[in-house]
Amino acid sequence: MGHLITLATCSLNQWALDFQGNLERILASIAIAKERGATLRVGPELEIPGYGCLDHFLEGDTVLHSWEVLAKILTSEEAQGIVCDVGMPVVHKNVIYNCRVIIHNRKILLIRPKMWLANDGNYRELRYFTPWTKHRQSEDHYLPRIIQVVTGQTKVTFGDAVISTQDTCIGVELCEELFTPASPHILMGLDGVEIFTNSSGSHHELRKLYARVDLIKEATLKLGGVYLYANQQGCDGDRLYYDGCAMIAVNGHIVAQGSQFSLNDVEVVSATIDIEDVRAHRAKSSRSMQAASAERYQRVEVPFSLTSGKFDVVREEDMSGLLSGSKPFQVRYHRPEEEIALGPACWLWDYLRRSRTQGYFVPLSGGIDSCATAVIVYSMSRLVVEAARRGDQQVIADARRISGEQPDSTYVPTDPREFTNRIFHTCYMGTENSSAETRQRAKQLSEAIGSYHVDLNMDSVVTAVRNLFVMVTGTRPQFRAHGGSAAENLALQNIQARLRMVLSYMFAQLLPWVRGKVGGLLVLGSANVDESLRGYLTKYDCSSADINPIGGISKTDLKKFIAYAEDSFQLPVLASFLNAVPTAELEPITETYVQADEADMGMTYDELSVFGRLRKVEKCGPYSMFTKLVHEWGSFLSPLQIAEKVKLFFFEHARNRHKMTTLTPSYHAESYSPDDNRFDLRPFLYPSRFPWQFKKIDEIAEVLPDRSVSSVKAKQD
After folding, report:
1. Which residues form the CN hydrolase domain (predicted)?
2. 68: annotated active-site residue
């Protein structure tokens, strides 16, 4: 007979500085874990204050309130009889650390500070915290008086130590430490640690889950062990969506997995494992030789077991239920188009309910970007209805409040189109340059998803502004099609775009009033990541909004999402958007000219995605991007053609970089996002023609042979 242990990890929708709400969700997760018979519960990183506190971590209040919440947890009935791994900031010897606090029966067993901090991309942990650099060393930490009163302890172990129970050994690994080359679990495992806990604040990116799962499986594949992964879930106050997906792995196999996208505030994942499986997996000569010479970790010894000690009398029917949770199964992955349908929709729901506004507003252009934004809102409504059908009382209460129901209302959302009509408002703002096709597509889309739709012509407003300029200057600007200069043409396009932004905010403020409701709407943006990267947008136009669910998503992925939604959401109208040529419709349409986005930009959206990845992910400047693309594109473009494309991209990116400083806060979904706020830190005043770099590109392009298909064929002819 083996030694069975039931373990639990969780995903919690914590919110920065929501100490009361965070406490309630932590206690709920502990209660669920206990109901399932778990003797160890692991929660997300910094779950007490919320991961996204940012500079608030530097405030003494954040640390104080975290201790106050911990005192509530320690004294709670839920936290008795179970080991709990909870996260909070701790000040040790006047230094702020990101810590895990391990508790059991009103006692603190260990405070384990994070040793390797996340400090790139969206993360700036070194701004608030200091890493613990005394590896395999610990010190005494003197507890604040509010904790001493509860635990009866004056001091506890603080540092890089492990917990030794009567039947196994537990070690802690925090988020980024899993991603480092020399992860702590390696040395802990060689020193006999059998159960590893990992508490994370890991945000969603398209296709990122594959890497996360591979690391979790690899952590125990060679080493052997049980790995409990907990993660934040939801929007906790900024651009990131934390995608949960709590997991349990045993000896390199995932045995339990939570949802990646969910409206649930609390989700607990549990499994019953046989710790003897770990010991059998480790019975290998090479592993044993390394373990025999491994450096020792300090062990905090505790007088209890994680196993019940009653396995000899466990009934057969109970055993089958216990063991079922530990059998390997196929990990669930979403396709990118599904991730777009779910991730931004969950983010929008959290933002809507926590901002305490009454809905969303988006200007529909009849193009695919604003269409994608609208369909994501509709996807949000579908998730709300699904949660309501499951009886999720928090979702039902939020839906009633957002849609303007009275406190005693019995309203429950049952139809996505009906709920969308309550909380989503769309508007087509046409001008003389707009086509009947885009107007019709906008109307048909609004009808299909159920939004409250307004259709207007804004020529009178555009004419008024144009006439004001004439009155002040005595000159009348003209479009290029009517003989105007490039400066006139651009100015007349921009005034249309910017007036749409002004009108959007007016309608967002007043449409609820028109419908007899109280409150206002949040304006949604609909500029995709490629247009932002290229700067193909007007500063302070409809790209300027409160938030943007597609600002981190490429045009290519958005098209795949719309194709997916056409079938999955039963929206046949979306086919017309997929087949339409992307156009801003800001210039007059003539017999010989129709404005098209890719022609305006001088590059395709697919090319923009390649440029974006090379610039950000591969860290390429102009010259290294050119040399890489000569190899990748050399079969169909000449070196001179590639050189011109690369130079055009960097020229346009550089001269439009200033627009990124005012970019609407967008859902982070793509690794090459140009978001200037925290993710992509660069100057916004460049030497836009890069004279040194471009000269080097030109010199190399001139001497490289042309191996493109067209060139080879011409030589053969």
Report:
1. 5-275
2. no
